[in-house]
Design brief:
By secondary structure, the chain is an alpha/beta fold. It has 7 helices and 7 strands; from the N terminus they run E-E-H-H-E-H-E-H-E-H-E-H-E-H.
Length: about 150
């Protein structure tokens, strides 16, 4: 049986964007300013500063992605401190910290948190009624994985 983690009405949303996608994420955040105001926002480096200035509201700003910000967000997901991930990544450009990006996405799936990697899926997430009410999120049971014989 899976354990549950309760997500409150006020979600903790991580915002991340690659360089070529920062403008898109800032535009999206501006368009969703009222909806985002109902939640706690966490972001990596430059992305966080841009959104903070644009929305004129404080965010929790972590390190830049390549300097460990992606890993910080991954750790926060694993410890249950992030409820939703909005990550506008650039599929057309190789990133020097590609392994960190893959690890972040893997952690999001591992801990069953909703995430969006583009504007359309971010719009669907933000317009879901579940974003504005308590939600019992199933936490997968990894005990058989952890207890396996090596």
């Amino acid at each position: 049986m899976n354990k549950k983690r309760k997500l409150s009405e006020r979600k903790r949303i991580a915002l991340v964007a690659h360089d070529n996608k920062k403008k898109d994420l800032v535009e999206w955040a501006t368009h969703n300013m009222n909806a985002l105001a109902r939640h706690e926002l966490i972001a990596t480096g430059t992305t966080g500063k841009l959104i903070e200035e644009t929305l004129d509201r404080p965010l929790k700003i972590l390190l830049s992605g390549p300097l460990g910000g992606d890993q910080q967000i991954g750790a926060m997901i694993a410890e249950g401190s992030i409820d939703v991930l909005i990550f506008f990544w650039d599929p057309m450009e190789a990133q020097p910290h590609d392994s960190d990006i893959k690890a972040l996405l893997r952690v999001a799936v591992t801990w069953n948190i909703p995430f969006a990697c583009d504007r359309a899926s971010a719009d669907f997430l933000m317009t879901s009624p579940l974003m504005y009410e308590e939600y019992a999120c199933a936490i997968p049971d990894y005990s058989s994985y952890l207890n396996r014989k090596i």
